[in-house]
Amino acid sequence: MAAASDNVRDHWHRYGDYDLLEVFGWAVKLAHLDTAPDAGCWAPMVGAAPASALGEPQAAALGRLSVGGPANIIIFDARKYDELLSRPQTERVVVRGRQVVSGKLPAYSELDALVATPTELVLEGQMGDHVKPVSRGAVVAK
What we know:
This protein is an alpha+beta fold.
């Protein structure tokens, strides 16, 4: 099973932040996946499972640390899954390629380019079907 979301500050859903922890948390909470035997059993559904479904050759290594392997991890201040998913985890340590990349989330202005591309939306109305560009995500101040 895999979980994902395209609800990222677009015209149809103004909330979301490309955060897999948020997607994982919602999946666990909405599907009551905290009982088998705990939420940690379902963590691969936002990493290895979708990567495997998409044919990613290194999917088996996702979510696993090994001696000599890549150290691409995110470290949160939580002792167990119920603490991890009970409140927002905005403070985190991101390690990519064995190097600390950042412990701070990017400013929204840094994400504007990711959500600013217009989307074509077919609107049905009294004048017939027509296509109108719809701005996705946050409105960028000029």
